[in-house]
Design goal:
- This protein is mainly alpha-helical and 213 residues long.
- It has eight helices and no strands.
- The longest helix is centred in the last third of the chain and has 23 residues.
- The protein is globular and about 45 Å long.
- The two termini are 33 Å apart.
Length: 213
C-alpha cells in the first residue's frame, strides 16, 4: 500500500522541467549499457583496479551509497532529479544500487558454454531500464491502470524473450517475470523507489529459482 500521495506528472516536479524529465528518462534507458560494460570489459576493469568484476560491482555500490549520503546531507539536487529526492535516496541511486546487488547476488550463477554469463542478470536489469520508463510515460499520458500494466508487461516480456533468444535464458521465465516485474513497480512507497522494487523482487524470485534452472 502506498504511504504517500503519488503524482504521475513528473515533469512539473523535475529540476529542469520537461528537459530535466527527458534527461532523466534518457539516463534511465542509458543504464542498459551497464551489463554490456560489465560483461564485455569487466576483466579489463578488474585488471586496472586490481579487483574481480564482482568485487568492482560491490565497490561501486558502496561508493554510490557514500556519495548519495553526501548529496542528501547537503540537500543537493541535480538536473533531472525531483524535489522529494532532496532528502532521500534518489531513484537513480536506488536503481544503480539494485543493479550492483544483482551482479553480486547472481555471480554464483553466471552462464556456461550453453548460455551467456548474464543470462539471468541482464533481463532483470533491462526490464528496469526499459520497463520503468514505458510504465511511467504511459501513466503520464493518462492511460488507465489496466493499459499501463499491459504496456509494462509487454515491454518486460519482450526483454525476457530477447534474452532467451540471444543469451540462453529459459523462455518460460518470460511468462513469470514480465508481469511480476511490472507488478513490482506498482507499490508507491515513500522511502523505497520502484527502481529498487523492480529489480529486487525479480532478483529474489530468480535466486529462489536458480538452483532448479
Amino acid at each position: 500500500m502506498s504511504d504517500f500521495e503519488y503524482d504521475s506528472d513528473h515533469v512539473k516536479r523535475s529540476v529542469g522541467g520537461k528537459s530535466g524529465h527527458f534527461f532523466r528518462r534518457g539516463f534511465h534507458i542509458g543504464m542498459a549499457l551497464i551489463p554490456w560494460l560489465y560483461y564485455e570489459f569487466g576483466e579489463q576493469i578488474g585488471e586496472f583496479t586490481s579487483l574481480e568484476p564482482v568485487q568492482f560491482a560491490a565497490a561501486f555500490g558502496i561508493t554510490l551509497l557514500i556519495l548519495e549520503g553526501i548529496r542528501i546531507r547537503f540537500g543537493i539536487l541535480i538536473f533531472g532529479q525531483r524535489e522529494y529526492e532532496k532528502h532521500q535516496i534518489s531513484a537513480v541511486a536506488w536503481g544503480a544500487l539494485s543493479i550492483s546487488l544483482t551482479f553480486v547476488a547472481l555471480s554464483k550463477w553466471e552462464g556456461t558454454d550453453a548460455n551467456h554469463a548474464g543470462w539471468l542478470t541482464i533481463p532483470i536489469i533491462l526490464s528496469l531500464t526499459f520497463g520503468d520508463p514505458a510504465i511511467g510515460e504511459a501513466r503520464r499520458f493518462g492511460y488507465d491502470s489496466r493499459t499501463v500494466f499491459a504496456i509494462g508487461t509487454i515491454v518486460c516480456g519482450i526483454t525476457w524473450l530477447a534474452s532467451s533468444y540471444f543469451l540462453g535464458t529459459p523462455y518460460w521465465l518470460a511468462i513469470l517475470m514480465a508481469p511480476l516485474t511490472t507488478a513490482a513497480e506498482w507499490p508507491k512507497l515513500k522511502w523505497i523507489d520502484d527502481n529498487a522494487t523492480m529489480v529486487l523482487i525479480p532478483l529474489a524470485t530468480v535466486i529462489l529459482l536458480a538452483p532448479f534452472l
